[in-house]
Amino acid sequence: MTIRTVTAKDPKPTPERIEQLAQRVLMGDIVLPEFQRPFVWKRKQIIELVDSIFRNYPIGSMLVWESTQELASKRTIADLEVGERSKTYPVNYLLDGQQRLSTICGVLYWAPGDPKSYWNVAFDLKSLKFFHADHVEELPLHQIPLRRLADPADYFRRLSPMDDAQLKARADLLFNRFKDYQVALVTLGDMSINDVAPVFERINSTGTRLTIYDLMRAATWSPEFDLGETIAEIKASLEAKKFSELDNKTFLRALGAAAGNDFSAQSVDALRDLPKDKLSEAALATKEAAQRAADFLATQIGAPRAEALPYANQFAVLCEIFRLLPHPSDLQLTEIARWFWLTTLSGYFGGWDSGQMTNDTRTIRNFASGRVATLGVPAVVSKSSLWGVKPFRSNSAVSKMLGLMLAHGEPLDLLNGQKIDVDKSLAWSNDKEYHHFFPQGYLSRRAVPGSSSNVVGNIILLTSKSNIEIRDRAPSDYLSEIVTSSGRDQLVRRLESNLVPAEALDAALADNYPEFLRLRSKHLQARAEQLAGQDVKETAEADEIEDSDIDPTD
After folding, report:
1. What angle, 0 to 180 degrees and rounded to 10, lies between the N-to-C axes of helices 165-180 and 152-159?
2. Which of 369, 396, 429 is the last residue of a domain?
3. 32 with 171, same domain?
4. Cα atoms found within 13 Å of the Cα of residue 513, Cβ hemisphere only
5. How far is the CA of 39 from the CAs of 118, 160, 174, 384, in angstroms?
6. Is the pLDDT of residue 434 over 90?
7. Both 234 and 356 in a single domain?
8. How many whole angstroms separate alpha carbon 174 and alpha carbon 77?
9. pLDDT, tens only, 153-177
């Protein structure tokens, strides 16, 4: 990393009343640079800050950068309009203290609107506690909205009917604390944006940690390039494809690779030293590659949205693949699909380290250039017991792989044979369409613990209506009804669409959960290895599950 020498004059700390600071913000003298992140404090933090001011506790210093440089800045703070400042005067860009100064501005100058506003804060003179009011009607006399403090005449006029000497003394104390409270304002001057960005990056005085995205937005910001807007544009381009919900870090990794490095944190950090035109080029290439990656996932993998991805980092790698290889051949598409299933089944991204990131980047570039024919992921080492022991949950890569494999099979509802809406199921917004083939209630009555019943190998897709109808019935009960009404052949067809092999039906009709789970898990492993381009292992040594692995009394 390049080490910059800061040549600015020494920072100047000066005491400032918080009310004066708020007024300077509203006048446009102190502004939030566009690279500042949004207000993120919770209501509890707002209350704690105003309580600290009332009790005369220190709340920390604030940092501004005085500059004549014209930078993009936010036009509001705490939902309040910021005044325009003459361009002939320097502006103070707030680098540290945004959450605190936003809170002070908000609670003192809030104009009644939404009663649930963050800024609708009041003080109870009797309990000496601050609270968020939930209406804008007049409060009892002993409860004072903090917005009254901004207008002394109005404040004391409204308190004039109060005849309790103790409460009046507390009201005076509240007013004086907010009028007289001072903080140290540190001013930086004569610095370039390149020197200010790392200063901003290292700030963490409020306890609200900056993410790598926050840091890089600050470190790379310039009037010509805003990382926040760039990633927002990439996400917007993916909204129609339902991949806009991926986290910012995923796109940072893709940018790092597109800029000529790899996916590591070091490569993301190196973005700060990239010329702005190169950053813009990498961002445009990432945007185009991301759209191709989303199309590939939807058409070749059957993953119609971001929530269906087992690992977010798979998308970052796919961006680099399709950046270098915008028009892959059929053989290359087959290899990319094989890579996707293989990295999922092997859990490759569960421990993706910087060494792997570097190697993967090199392999991708060799693959795109035609020097190698595969993407070189290690072979699967998992056994079919994986499906019988891994818990089923929405954030599990194995669970998501099952969902994707089921989507591939165009699953049918067991009871009525209708097609399942896999797009809805893969959204993972709820698990209503994921059904325990051996219902958990039924297994619980047979002393099978939840850790053994809520496993991936016991899950199929089912409509909510059929799920309710089956409830906690024994498989022998509800499956026999289907055989009677629709015939065994139809039931087998519906089961196979849910990746339940025909031989597992007899175990289910006998209510033999261990045998069903053994057969179903073996079938799922064979299907997964087929998708991953691995040789399907049929030997007992490789695939058989010991009874102890799925003992229902575990």
Report:
1. 170
2. 369
3. yes
4. 30
5. 11, 36, 26, 48
6. no
7. yes
8. 24
9. 999 999 999 999 999 999 999 999 9
